[in-house]
């Protein structure tokens, strides 16, 4: 079973507030340096790693000399703004020791709910990973409002795993993994070694946060595993204080709790596409494009005879044959004006027509469901 994590090529590693700030006493630079060392080793082995790190608020509270985490939103946001500086500074320094660049990415829920921003966030993250940079991701706490808040970074970690189609989500926390009950309250609680991410029994076992420093607790980690599994990512919840935790997981060791996905990435992603789309327009395809799509290929502009509706880049559109029958739907890489201009053109002509080339396909096959 642990080969699932060992074989992962693209990983999201999430570290919680209590860990990063040594239970709220300030950034734990030693621990951060140790994760950076391990991530650098994984990179050398050809793996790509994005890091979702909490700790901005806890670090800010400590930097400002406050005794405890405040309740008022404006004070929390001020603390996050101060703390995020320290957080990325520290990561930059510890990764630089291994010759690795870092990049700060701050996200809100809105960024991932909006198709255009979703695609932009995805291509930026993919580009950074391909460049060998380690993205350091956190919620944009300083501007976020209650309505658009992820709230805890476990959820954010899962959404990032979905976004970049990671193979694994590693959640580092202050416990060895998921126990049958909160081990802080029940000394008889036992560690769960592994199970299906969607197994509902795990939710009943998981409780809230272990300290006033953190936000989510175990319940958000279990839900994050369910969410990550929808795009085919396996989740491992383990202790960030365990020596060489990341390296041992990459070697296939049985560490922590493995909550594995049961569907393949593509099936899961297509399921998501089929379930969640609100259509903003439609495309009419010629017989050649219909045949290409049925054969599992991407949609190129050359096969599109008509573009209906006004939509933005990243919108969901339905796909029709010339008789009007709907054969599928997908997320389009160009807005309606651009799509009209490049319809019927060969991909090689896109740049000449638009003055730029975002993607050679109008809709990539991974972003499409064909009935
Ligand atoms: N069933 C459980 N197994 C393990 N930990 C649990 C469980 N239920 C609740 N917890 C609590 O969840 C805490 C970890 O979550 P949290 O405090 O949010 O940390 P992080 O900052 O790493 O996200 C643990 O310290 C533990 O007290
Ligand atoms: N974005 C917040 C993290 C929220 C939070 O506490 O998350 P976690 O510790 O992962 O449960 C921060 O950086 O302080």
TrEMBL record:
PROSITE patterns: GLUTAMATE_5_KINASE, PUA. The keyword Cytoplasm applies. GO terms for molecular function: ATP binding; glutamate 5-kinase activity; RNA binding. It is found in: Cytoplasm. Its EC number is 2.7.2.11. It comes from the Bacteria. Pathway: Amino-acid biosynthesis; L-proline biosynthesis; L-glutamate 5-semialdehyde from L-glutamate: step 1/2. One of its GO terms (cellular component) is cytosol. It catalyses: L-glutamate + ATP = L-glutamyl 5-phosphate + ADP. Keywords: Amino-acid biosynthesis, ATP-binding, Cytoplasm, Kinase, Nucleotide-binding, Proline biosynthesis, Transferase. Residues 281-363 form the PUA domain. Its main location: cytoplasm. The keyword Nucleotide-binding applies. ATP binds at residues 14, 173-174. InterPro entries: AceGlu_kinase-like_sf (IPR036393), Asp/Glu/Uridylate_kinase (IPR001048), G5K_ProB (IPR041739), Glu/AcGlu_kinase (IPR001057), Glu_5kinase (IPR011529), Glu_5kinase/COase_Synthase (IPR005715), Glutamate_5-kinase_CS (IPR019797), PUA (IPR002478). Coiled coil: none annotated. One of its GO terms (biological process) is L-proline biosynthetic process. It holds the Pfam family PUA. Substrate binds at residues 54, 141, 153. NCBIfam families: proB (TIGR01027). Catalyzes the transfer of a phosphate group to glutamate to form L-glutamate 5-phosphate. PANTHER family: GLUTAMATE 5-KINASE, ISOPENTENYL PHOSPHATE KINASE. Belongs to the glutamate 5-kinase family. This is Glutamate 5-kinase.
